[in-house]
Design a protein that fits this description.
Blueprint (H helix, E strand, L loop, with lengths): L1 H17 L14 E10 L3 E8 L6 E5 L4 E7 L1 E3 L4 E4 L6 E11 L2 E10 L6 E5 L2 E7 L5
Parallel strand pairs: 1-5
Antiparallel strand pairs: 1-2, 2-10, 3-4, 4-8, 6-7, 7-8, 9-10
């Protein structure tokens, strides 16, 4: 009887510890990284795409030749309610914007793809809670 009881306790303990969460917990009070808004501001001298975040975020940038575009990847970041395809207001530079989140090794990675109508120069400006992609109007094809 002791052997059966011991075996049951061992199996119960193995199931309890083996089924626990494997996700890394964030310390209490620390908010996860989020992209909270994407907006286009069209001025007379430039077209600005503003990517607002809840804090300063790390990112990588990849220029694509065909089709023409730019991809921004934000590791360990989620997109808050902005997933999908967005048509740009009438302009000569941006065709559309696609925002999505996928997982890499269980960690969220937010991606923003800016499809361009042609090759266009741009400048990046990162502030505390915003990444701005500015396309000078004169660079439009």
């Amino acid at each position: 009887m002791k052997k059966i009881l011991t075996l049951v306790l061992i199996l119960y303990a193995a199931a309890f510890w083996g089924c626990g969460s494997h996700h890394t917990a964030r310390p209490v009070g620390i908010e996860s990284n989020h992209i909270v808004d994407i907006a286009i501001d069209s001025g007379s001298d430039s077209l600005k795409l503003n990517i607002r975040t809840n804090r300063s975020l790390d990112y990588t940038e990849h220029r694509m030749a065909k089709p023409s575009g730019v991809v921004f990847s934000f590791p360990d970041t989620k997109i808050g309610g902005l997933k999908g395809l967005y048509k740009s207001p009438e302009n000569k530079i941006i065709r559309y914007i696609r925002a999505d989140t996928h997982a890499v090794n269980g960690t969220p990675v937010a991606t923003i793809y800016i499809a361009l109508k042609g090759d266009a120069a741009y400048e990046l400006n990162q502030e505390e809670d915003q990444l701005q992609v500015a396309f000078p109007i004169s660079s439009a094809p």
